[in-house]
Amino acid sequence: MKKEDCFYLGKIVKKYSFKGEVLVKLDTDEPELYEELESVFIAIGHDLVPFFIEESSLHKSNLLRLKLEDVRTEEDADALLKCELYLPLATLPELSGNKFYFHEVIGFTVKDEKFGEVGVIKGINDTTAQPLFRIDREGTEILIPMNDELIKTVDRNSGVIIVRTPEGLIDLYL
Length: 174
Prior knowledge:
Number of helices: 1
CATH superfamily of the largest domain: RimM
CATH class of the largest domain: Mainly Beta
Shape: elongated
Number of strands: 12
Distance between the termini: 41 Å
Radius of gyration: 20 Å
CATH topology of the largest domain: Elongation Factor Tu (Ef-tu), domain 3
Number of domains: 2
Structural class: mainly beta
């Protein structure tokens, strides 16, 4: 399995018990979707290594407590600290309407209701307080907030997202 075929689920942040259990900080708004996993891929070096899950439960709000097969001691758990967890893209539930996964809209064309065609989504900047579309317009990068009020339509069939940006936002970049 390659990272390109997977999505980032979270990171092992600490040990939970002397029996090798670990706590994973999940990168999701719906941690309960991942409570009943059978297996995960853990990034160890440059490889994704599959691990089967013996037990799992939610711990506090967005932490997942895992008992992994073949991880029996504190030392085994220590070796996995700060490792990232991944799941195959095929396991993601399908979204509809204006909801989408970040990786899903890369390459989509963005059109503004007033401005017209803005450009093509080259990436998502999610390091800011609010995620931003990174749009390429003939070599110029335009950033548009990914806000439910700005996104009017997501057309998966044609690969187009219609937005209504505040007056002058796009002009700031041109």
